Predict the 3D structure of the following.
Amino acid sequence: MESKFQALKSRLMEVDDLSSAAGLLYWDQSTYMPPGGAAARARQTATLTRLAHEKFTDPGVGKLLDELGPYEESLPYDSDEASLLRVTRRKYERAIKIPLEFTAEVANHTSESYQVWTEARPANDFARVRPYLEKTLDYSRQAANFFPGYEHIADPLIEPRDYGMKAADISRIFANLREELVPIARAITAQPPADDACLFKNFPEAKQFEFSMDVAQRFGYELQRGRRDQTHHPFMTKFSLGDVRITTRSRENKLSDALFTTLHETGHALYEQGIRMELEGTPLARGTSSGVHESQSRLWENIVGRSRGFWHCFYPRLQSIFPMQLGDVSLDEFYRAINKVERSLIRTDADEVTYNLHVMLRFDFELAMLEGNLEICNLPDAWRERFEADFGIVPPDDKDGVLQDVHWYFSLIGGGFQGYTLGNILGSQFFAAALAAHSEIPAEIESGEFGSLHTWLKENLYQHGSKYTAPEIIERATGTSLSIEPYIAYLRTKYGELYELGD
């Protein structure tokens, strides 16, 4: 049994190597590749994706999984070996239902679509990307239909990102959350907006990078196992547990871009760098779900990075780096500026209170497109109508409307957005559990120390990779199932004080 288990691990390592190579090509395309390489890059990515899928779905893998069934049953549920067999079997049984040719076609198409989007968005040219998006929607429906018997056509697309969740579950959570959020958002936006002009001065990029990367390292990001580069739409990517990279964007006339995108992607990277090295090269060496993964980016970016305690420590240094821009701006003014709540156009720029409304809009549109109730040609108009209804403002163009997010232009439609809001919810739930275990965390944050928080997260979340499903890891770490209550309590406390909302 041991030799068969090692044979399976060797096969899985080869699959991981091919997938990582494809990921490296995507990273390069998103950072340094010249536009002229787009056609060849689409072909190269498709080739590697096809080879990885081919190796993983090889009948030999299924045979080894079958033969190792008795071995798995003899092991403790939470052992690395049993967990690897359990998770691999689940992924294998899904993968063999997807034709090899389809996987390669989608990889080729999404690579081409991404390149077109990078040119179409700044040109405000939805017409150019529309045929690609129509084809993506067709591929998305085909992908879902490889898994007949679903309750909703989005369910098979949600499953690989947030295993155990269905469209109905997410819709219910979102409805409950919306009921709590809307009154808070209305109460705040009825007031005069906070003055955030201090964030829109000239801030040289090199100094922004230096400060934000110093904070990332203070959080625990290890540069000997990572690096940071610029891209159109920030992301974190991992090629091995020893190579976990982040990308960010920056603007010299907006301080918050480089800073908070760096902290956001650092949260993702801390998760991946915290996985035990023993899981390297296997399906366990990654985050367990998009919701749990996003909980870490939102926790480090917002709960820590936008807290008053954090800036009590770091604001004097930021002022010393930008004395002309921030020297006469008080901590209170800066704190209110970075936590300004307003009706805004861009999801990634949205504040903590209104952010989830952006996600819900996209999730609802995904369901409608997959159901056939919203055609791609009508998407820009539908976007403007829904945006006006939810936010009271109308996007002036498609660049800051339907074209703003990369997701539908480099991946399938469905399952790509719910993780952001699930992450907001879970970030607060995990942070509350960490505080219950270590009451000294707020004081440590105020002194610029993050060891207790990082260690608790590493011990309770990061080290396990995807050994446990999201519901299992939430229960193990917090003692309860997913709950919106810690998140709502966090928002009410923080923004109640900022905007004097009362009870």
User: Anything to note?
Assistant: The mean pLDDT is 96. Residues 2-31 form the longest helix (30 residues). Residues 165 and 442 are 33 Å apart (CA to CA). The two ends are 61 Å apart (CA to CA).
